[in-house]
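Board notes (copied after class):
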Amino acid sequence: MKRPLPVLAAAGSLLVTLSAADVALAQRPGGILKMYDPDSPASMSIHEEGTYVAERPMMGVFNNLVMFDQHVKQNSLNSIVPDLATSWSWNEDGTELTFRLRRGVRWHDGQPFTANDVQCTWDMLVGRSTAKFRINPRRSWYWNLDRVTTNGDYEVTFHLRQPQPALIALLASGYSGRHRMDNNSLPLDGAARLPGGKARHDLSVRGDRSIAQGHREPGSAGDL
């Protein structure tokens, strides 16, 4: 039996409306995200681990200055989007990369996130800080980084020894989370969150698989 076109059109509109509602619910901030890991991470300190086993679950806990757009299938310099940085620019000779930082971001303990935290992170990564990681598998990534300087609380500049356009791609990777300026805290304390946001994570082992479970509340940096 053939149905009148208006009925079909109404049914189609209903399906579209329901689909849109599902998308809206899927994007609701907060809640619990569980993911299965094929192995047990040696730790949850993202700067001290060298494989995706730890990086995959921890990418949802730590924030980057910039990151690759998760909705674009192929990573490229053109698919890099802001995270803790709101914008960035190069100087004329390509040896200075300056980031303007997002205001109002706080750490899990309520302390403000500033440019000093970014400087501290890379001082540790290049071995310039008195505080040291137990292991530092990505120190060689930054062989060309001369120093990191700050200009106030919300601007930071990476000074390179020679031009390196791909540096920002390293900063967009899941291995480049921020760390607190407090050198007495573990690298795991580097999960910056927006005002009112909190995040924590658990790791349990069931059988031969690890399960990483992240808890995020509305207002966290992951809701940007």
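Comment from the instructor: The two ends are 49 Å apart (CA to CA). Residues 5-25, 183-224 have pLDDT under 50 and may be disordered.
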